[in-house]
Fold this protein.
Amino acid sequence: MRITKTILNSFIIASIAVLLSGCFGSSPSQQQYLLNIKMPTSLKALKVNHTLKVLMTKSQPQYNTSEFIYRISEYQYLSDYYHSFMVTPSQMVTQFTVGYLTQRHLFKTVTTEDSLLQSSEYELQPFVEALYADYRDSAKPTAVIKIRYTLLDNQKHNHAVLLDHVFTESIPLTTKSSTALIVAWNTGMQRILSRLSNSLSGILSD
């Protein structure tokens, strides 16, 4: 039985690699991708004076990589050298968070750590908890993205935590392809940012 399971796992890994590479030669070319979400454009600017600094996104060690990650069993994961992001997921999350919240006009200014504006009323720490394709059920593949956002109030001496929540999205894949995976991650990221902005709006209005 152990031999059978080993052979089966090896076959699954090989099948996924071949399927996603789309190349049957001995030296498949490396393909790079970028996430691309739609920013809100219809919201009008609000009269607010709050300032926010978005800190550099941190990540769980296993997701601190540009390579795509596939989960193929409860404890087994596979990284794909031939399909990867052009920049790290952490860099994209920071960029999207700043851009999205700027467009939502919840704050007078939304800056990053490298901004010349040193002080801010609030600090937001993004943290990538998970980013992978879930292929454990071959009939129902999904794209998983989990991001923790922690909001700190710099106006308090103890830097009170106003928000500490993991936003999770699991998007069904139309096909087992890199393009479908990117599209699903885009959808998940956009939903998370929408949920985050709604949470921040509620906190600021209290």
The CA atoms of residues 4 and 10 lie 10 Å apart. The two ends are 60 Å apart (CA to CA). The first strand starts at residue 31 and ends at 33.
